[in-house]
Fold this sequence. Notes:
26% strand; alpha+beta; single chain; Chemotaxis protein chec; 7-stranded antiparallel β-sheet
Amino acid sequence: MTSEESTWAGIIVPLISGIIEDMAFTEVMPSEATPQYDLAARGASLLVHDPVQGEFQLIIENSLLKYLAGIVYGPMADELNEQSEGDFLDELLNTIAGRFLSVILPEDKSFTLGIPERFSGPFVVPVPPVSSWSFVIEGMCFTLIATGESLVALENR
């Protein structure tokens, strides 16, 4: 973790842990290593339009997405398909980005987000400026990436 990422890490790690623990009742551990994702992994991106511009990306192992969606959907887990898993991924990214922006922006600032868009591998870390955080749940990984000059610049304020 670089010093540039350390300020936000103190916010994002407990925030993501809280969201996942509240949704899926499972423990989340931060990881220092950035995982190598195979082509089966899934991803979603979410643009930030205002008051800064940038993008959040969430990349998750397919097995972890199925695991978390199965917990969240409970008795309906037998009816899960790729679309409902993707909907869960979109909602997870939207929740993380929204809560994160609510914390880092001044209380009187609202923000505008786009609509989550899904993507698949191969997964390439965006060009700088970028901040990323990786996590492990039950031996399976996911990574949150924030990119965009004005979004990442908020950390230094």
